[in-house]
Structure formats: structure tokens, C-alpha cells
């Protein structure tokens, strides 16, 4: 009876709702959350696609705002039952300054937590990242690990440092009293490398391949495994965790969950070829064409060029010492914690995830011609 009493009563807020993951979370909520009355989408940049959502039965409210501005966040959060905080500055290419990354990812998350406390919102789901664990600066492999696998998490790069700090703040906030006296219930989801429709890095790599005459050159040994997860499954996990957090606060509050599905364990490049191959690209070489030390040198050169050119232009190629270390260190997850705690099963099989991603890439290709 509790469920029917709550039918179409809930107000959800998705921060970063116009980003790659955020859009999938928004669409998934509209499809899979029958208790939704209002869906608020908060983002720095609002997408035109939001208009088409406004004709459905759920009230869709688009809010253009900045998570670093506490008053804007508080106004958006007021009256929401659940906040899904996906907004973040995802930058491992040196496009933004470390201060800006910290401001958005850490201060932005503090603002979301404080807004929940001050306005009385009880449930907060945070989109964290596998990067809060690793790979660490020492390049230790994390092979089929789970949430309890011991691993020395040491970060120097601003992105993982900021995600780790923000995650810690969210978990520490679990149990704080919100306005009205009820406890705040929080948890964090840690996706591995997300792929699927709308993935900007995949798009960049695809166009890079086209510029190179339909070829990509292997830089990473095929034996280095990199964890990947389909965006639809990550979105589904967010919807499910938000729902179940309300039913099982004692079990799930303060917990972290890796996001996982049935995507195969492969190297970053071999995995991308699952989609780029059917779009006509070829990965040249069964082994890296350049020795690692030379790649490292090129990566360092890119970093130097970025620094030298900064007063004139933004030079931010895919290859830099950090991205090379990321791609070249095994980091894979094998866990069933989400299944045990809240009944998660991937909504999309590997075949479906692959097909959907290929279809998106092919559509992108034909619209570019
Ligand atoms: N892409 C990936 O492989 C992974 C992403 N994540 C996390 O998932 C979340 C979403 O990432 P993506 O969708 O890939 O990135 P994205 O860049 O596509 O989306 C982030 C969204 O946040 C918004 N945003 C940025 N700064 C903001 C601000 N100051 N105020 C309000 N909105 C702001 C952006 O406009 C954008 O719409 C991030 O928190 C990221 O750290 C975690 C693991 C892997
Ligand atoms: C050395 C190049 C030769 O082809 C390949 C460079 C690939 C890199 C751009 C990617 C390798 C690993 C990626 C990261 C990883 O999937 C984990 C991530 C988690 C996040 O929270 C955000 C995105 C990312 C940092 C992701 C970014 C791109 C890579 C570094």
C-alpha cells in the first residue's frame, strides 16, 4: 500500500542531467520510475532535447545553474525527495585548471550535501568513479577487484583527487540530520570507463581514425585489461539505487558500489574496436607499434607543449602522461555487491549494448557526410 500511496508523488533532481551519463539517467527515470511526479534537470548547459520530454505525464523542469553556486543548488534541491548528483568536471586532458576541477567536483558536491541538509532532502546518490580507487600513481594493477579489495589509492591528478574527496564527503554525510530531523541517506556509484551513445571520447577517437585513413595504431598491449560499462546500465543502476535507498536505508546508506555489467574484459583499444571495427576502422598491429618509453616521451612532449602554448591556445590531445598510465594499467572489476544489496541486474546485455553503440556511431557517421 505504501507504494500506491506514493504513486506519482516523488520529485527527483538530477544534477548534470544534460551530460553524457546525465541524459541517460534522465531518460531512464522517465521510463522506469512510475512514482515520479516531477523531474528536475539541473545543468550549466541545457540541451534542446529537453523540450521533447516536457509533453509527457511527468513534470520536467529544466534548471540552468551552476553547482558551485550554493544558492542556485539550494533553490533547485528544495522540495526534492531524491537527488542524483552526476554533475562534474570530467577532465584528464588539462583543459581546465586544477582549481576549477576542485571547485566543481568538491565544492559543488559540498553545496549539494548542504542543500539536502538545509532543505530536508533525505536521499542522495553520488556518481563517483572507479578513479577514486585507481589506477594509482604507482601503476599497480587492480585485477577483477571488488569494493573490498585492498588497493593503495594514491592520487596526484586533480580529477581522481577531486572525485575521491567528493565521494568521501558524500559518505561522511550519511546519517546527518536534514531539516525536519530525518537522517540523510547517501551512497556512491563508481562507474568504470563508461561507453555508449553520446560518448565524446569515442567520437574523438573515431574522427582521429578517419583522419588517419581509417586506421588506428596500437599503443597499448592487448593484455592490459580496462574495465568498461555500458551507459544504459550505469543509468539503470542509478535509478535502482535511488529507489532502493528509500527502502533499505540501513543496508545501503554510506555504501559504495562499482558499476558493472557483462561487457568483456579487454584493453582500452581492443574494446573500442568492438564499435569502431564495424564502422570501418582498423587497429594496426598485434603489439604496440612504439616502445613504451617512446610513448611516454611523446606524452611528456604533449604535456610540455600544452604548457608552452597555454598563453596562445588550448592544446589538449588524448595522449598525456596521465592518460597513457591509465590506459596502460590493468583495472577491472568483478563484483556482485549491487546485486546482493539492491537486486541489480544489467538491463542491457553485452550484445545489446554493443549494437546500440554501433548504431549510434553509424548514425553519427552518416550525419557527418
Ligand atoms: N565518462 C566516464 O567514463 C565516467 C564518468 N564518471 C562520472 O560521471 C559523471 C558524469 O560524467 P559524464 O557524463 O561522462 O560527463 P559530462 O561532461 O558529459 O557530463 C557532466 C555534466 O555536468 C555538467 N556540469 C559541469 N560543471 C557543472 C557545474 N559547475 N554546474 C552544473 N553542471 C555542471 C556539464 O554541463 C555536463 O552536462 C561525472 O561526475 C563523472 O565524474 C565516472 C566514471 C566514468
Ligand atoms: C594512450 C592512447 C592510445 O590510444 C589511449 C588514451 C586513452 C585514454 C584517453 C583513456 C584511457 C582510460 C580512460 C579513462 C578511464 O576509462 C576511466 C575514466 C573514469 C572517469 O571517471 C572519467 C573518464 C576516465 C578518466 C577515462 C578518460 C579517458 C581515458 C584516460
TrEMBL record:
GO terms for cellular component: endoplasmic reticulum membrane. InterPro entries: 3Beta_OHSteriod_DH/Estase (IPR002225), NAD(P)-bd_dom_sf (IPR036291), NAD(P)_dehydrat-like (IPR050425). Its EC number is 1.1.1.181. It catalyses: 7alpha,25-dihydroxycholesterol + NAD(+) = 7alpha,25-dihydroxy-4-cholesten-3-one + NADH + H(+); (24S)-7alpha-dihydroxycholesterol + NAD(+) = (24S)-7alpha,24-dihydroxycholest-4-en-3-one + NADH + H(+); 7alpha-hydroxycholesterol + NAD(+) = 7alpha-hydroxycholest-4-en-3-one + NADH + H(+); (25R)-cholest-5-en-3beta,7alpha,26-triol + NAD(+) = (25R)-7alpha,26-dihydroxycholest-4-en-3-one + NADH + H(+). GO terms for molecular function: cholest-5-ene-3-beta,7-alpha-diol 3-beta-dehydrogenase activity. GO terms for biological process: steroid biosynthetic process. It is found in: Endoplasmic reticulum membrane. Keywords: Endoplasmic reticulum, Lipid metabolism, Membrane, NAD, Oxidoreductase, Steroidogenesis, Transmembrane, Transmembrane helix. Coiled coil: none annotated. Pathway: Lipid metabolism; steroid biosynthesis; Steroid biosynthesis. It is a multi-pass membrane protein. The chain crosses the membrane at residues 289-309. Residues 13-283 form the 3-beta hydroxysteroid dehydrogenase/isomerase domain. The 3-beta-HSD enzymatic system plays a crucial role in the biosynthesis of all classes of hormonal steroids. HSD VII is active against four 7-alpha-hydroxylated sterols. Does not metabolize several different C(19/21) steroids as substrates. Involved in bile acid synthesis. Plays a key role in cell positioning and movement in lymphoid tissues by mediating degradation of 7-alpha,25-dihydroxycholesterol (7-alpha,25-OHC): 7-alpha,25-OHC acts as a ligand for the G protein-coupled receptor GPR183/EBI2, a chemotactic receptor for a number of lymphoid cells. Belongs to the 3-beta-HSD family. This is 3 beta-hydroxysteroid dehydrogenase type 7.
